[in-house]
Amino acid sequence: FSCLLSSFFLVDLRLDTNIIRLLPEKSPVSQWVRELRGPVGDGGYFTILVKSSDRKTLINAADFIHKQTDNLPDVSFSIYQKPYEFIEKYKYLLLSLPALERLYDYAVRLESETNPFSTDLMAEEDVTTDRIERNRQRNLEKSLDRFSSQTEFHESADGTLIGILIYPKSMVTDLEAIRKLYNRLEYISQETAQKFNIWSEVGGSQIKNLREYKSIIEDLGRAGIISLSAIFFILLFCFRSLRIIPVVVLPLLTGLAWAFAFVPSFVGPLNIITVFLLLILFGMGIDYSIHLIRHFQMRLQTLQVAEALYETFSTTGKSVLISGLTTALPLLILALSKFRGFSDFGIIGGWSILMMLTAMFTVLPPLLLVAHRLHLITPGATLSGSILPPRRKIAVAALSIIVILSTFAIGSGDLFDYNFSAHSSDAQNAKNFDRQHKKVFNRSMVPAALYLAPDVSTLDRSRTVLTNAMEKDGSTIERLTSVRDFAPDEEEFGKRVELILQAKEIFQGSWYRRITDAKVKQWVEDFRLWQPPDKPATLGTLPQEILSYYMARDGSGQFLLGIYPAVSRRNGHDVLAFYGELEHLSLPDTLQGPIGEVVVFAEILDLVLHEAPIVIFFALLSVSLPIYLSSRSLRETALTLFPLISGMLLLFGVMGISGMQLNYLSIVIIPALLGMGVDDGIHYFRHCKAHGYNVVVTQRELFGTLSVCTLTTMIGYFGLVVAHNRGLRSLGILACLGMACLWITSVFLLPAFLEKRDKRRR
Predict the structure, then answer these.
(1) Helix H or strand E segment including 388
(2) DSSP labels for 444-481?
(3) Closest Cα partner for 448 from 670, 653, 580, 599?
(4) Could you tell me which residues are beta bridge partners of residue 168?
């Protein structure tokens, strides 16, 4: 009844894929996101691509979509045309001063490479050998290519694709609003495709979280079917009876219902790390039922029901209690973390283990009595057969190999993956769309960091600080974007004109005709013929298409300042360097920010790298404490922990050999493995001690049970192995591999070392 009553609270459970939820509420980035969501948004957008070989049809279709989307209440603005006349007039003056300086250097190098009569000034030093400089050079060439072949629309080079950019009023943090808008855009896209008989599809940066949400929901359903089906067949094999399975499962379901009934109040929505906890906990919690019921069945062979029940809970029950506490405590240690990916996982996991233990000691005992009266439970034998422990010498050799492998793996320093693509799904249709998208928009449309300046003075002072930082060697800043790109002040306008005239002077020679690259030759010819205007554009004369991008969306008249990195957004080292550079700049106090996905990932990675070692240390300490308090012996504590320590070393060794790495999602499993991995050692040592250190008897009694329990725990994680989300998939693989390593050390290495005590007893 309590299980059914608690299940009514489960309707409040929901998933929030917003990555911001992984950060502390009081973190700088979280606070800026809440403050700037109205005027700034998050820089994200939707894109509708239309494709047709008929030019007139293509333009009509794009115009139809623009009119449909621009009037939607949830859309800030949409655009598919460029301010063509404005760009043609000011053209290369729209390049920033650092970009124009690189243009001048590029012109000098191009002449030295092409003109045989010029001095090769770049012979001794290649400025493009540096990775950051190469990225900047590529972006410069893209800009020059775009200006020299300017089009009226956002379209591909062959003119068969046009992209319509749609900027929503809601941020991706409001997943429900974004989902509704996406559904509406999907309908408009399909309607356009049918009306004009063309290809049309929706994509863009905002759709990523929606894809993740859909992928996780699909993964959850698939993993649930696989895991529950596998656990059912394992239980059927273990107990050889279909009737007993409800007895095994009911206490577990009751404990989970008690636990998750409080999750919406304690934690809030599930995140991308905790969403699979229900399956994981089912695989972990079923072990407690298996241990207790198997022991009860074996004792029924020689004892009466009441005596068998008492003996089960006074021996195996203590082992279950200790192993449950050693699993819950490391998880609860995670709750102290500032990183909510850790803390939510720890709160839900630790609380659920405690509730399942409570159910095992309150629901299961009377259930066993009822099940025995109904003949659902009958006396049973062990599952182990004649499997014997290995010899001590073999175990010592194996342990030596494990230590060597793990030392090599840990010493290599490559156990952590800094690639943020681990948090993504393998949606093939998304990859296909992205390839089409790059034909229209060949550079990033979303700044890595966004600031909000209340006035022009703050904007100009901020740009000065950032530009000076960008000009330093090793800077991770590639370019800035703001209205000042299009309407510079008189001083900056003069500097831009001077650099352009210097570059034009270099290109006046006939040597440029020997350029073999057709694209380069095209923009050189265009650059030679273009004449800069006498005066710069002013803020009051800028086209609305430009103002929509770079002004606050709430109509307050504030200015947006976007920053693009010169380093990879997917590499954690680069992201940390970029964010660190921004943090150390002395920007005006009136400038608000930064926000942006790259900034969020940088803060997440910084939290994980700083907190993970501390969390893992205290998790190991929390595992050791209950074992020591129950035994009051350092020697027995060390023997109980031996399979855990050796199993984790084996795991790191295998990771080092196979090239497997931890990431910011999968690292959460290490404290969980410390809690789960010690269970087998606790059960084995306590049973062996109860039998007078008779390893052979203990092995025959527990080998099968421990193997089944390990397998059910692995099955709980196996649902993640088949997930499309690569971060969750890596978490599942790591957990299954870790449990396999811990099983090997528990049922093979530990018995071999306990064999010495067995010989002394004999």
Answers:
(1) none
(2) --S-SEEEEESSHHHHHHHHHHHHHHHTSTT--EEEEE
(3) 599
(4) 75
pLDDT at 129: 42
Main-chain phi, psi angles of 551, to 5 degrees: -115, 155
Closest C-alpha to 752, from 651, 647, 654, 643 = 643
Task: DSSP for 289-354, please give it.
Answer: HHHHHHHHHHHTTTS-HHHHHHHHHHHHHHHHHHHHHHHHHHHHHHTT-SSHHHHHHHHHHHHHHH
Ramachandran quadrant class, 692 (left: phi over 0; alpha: psi -120 to 50; beta: rest): left
- The pLDDT of residue 152 is above 60: yes
Strands 449-453 and 75-79, sheet pairing: unpaired
Of 703, 669, 675, 722, whose CA–CA distance to 329 is shortest?
Answer: 675
Q: For residues 251 and 366, is the Cβ–Cβ distance under 8 A?
A: no
Would you give the distance in Å from CA 490 to the centre of its chain?
A: 46
The strand ranges marked E within 704-747 are none
Q: How far apart are CA 515 and CA 505, in angstroms?
A: 17
The one-letter code for the residue type at 343 is S
CA 323 to chain centre: 30
Distances (CA, A) of 60 to 11, 28, 54, 418, 546: 46, 45, 10, 45, 23
Say how many residues make up the chain: 762
Is the predicted pLDDT of residue 566 greater than 50, yes or no? Answer: yes
E-assigned strand segments in 140-188: 161-168
Angstrom distance (rounded) from CA 550 to CA 545: 9
As a whole number of angstroms, the distance between CA 550 and CA 94 comes to: 14
Place of tokens 């025959």: 700
Mean pLDDT in the chain? Answer: 82
Please say whether the beta carbons of 752 and 391 come within 8 A: yes
Report long-range pairs for 141-148 (Cβ below 8 Å, ≥24 apart): 141/520, 142/442, 142/443, 143/95, 143/99, 144/103, 144/523, 144/527, 145/519, 145/522, 145/523, 146/442, 147/87, 147/91, 147/92, 147/94, 147/523, 147/526, 148/522, 148/523, 148/525, 148/526, 148/527
Tell me which amino acid residue 195 is. K
Q: Is residue 585 within a helix (H) or strand (E), and if so which, with residue range?
A: none
Q: 3-state class of 168 per DSSP?
A: strand
Strand partners, 449: 563
Strand boundaries in 493-566, DSSP class E: 559-565
pLDDT digits 0-9 by tens, 415-449: 777 776 555 555 555 677 778 888 888 777 788 89
* Whether the predicted pLDDT of 155 surpasses 70: yes
Q: At what angle do helices 597-631 and 305-334 cross, to 10 degrees?
A: 140
Predicted pLDDT at 12: 61
Which strands sit side by side in the sheet containing 161-168, from one edge to the other? 75-79, 161-168, 46-51, 199-203
62 has pLDDT over 80: yes
Measured CA to CA in angstroms, residue 222 lies from 218, 283, 299, 310, 345 at distances of 6, 16, 39, 40, 21
The distance in angstroms from the start CA to the end CA of the chain is: 52
Q: What is the mean pLDDT of residues 478-494?
A: 90
**What SS3 state is found at 482?**
coil
Q: What single string gives the DSSP state of each residue in 264-298?
A: HHHT-SB-TTTTTHHHHHHHHHHHHHHHHHHHHHH
Contact by Cβ (8 Å): 729, 292? no
- Tokens 């996991």 belong to 349
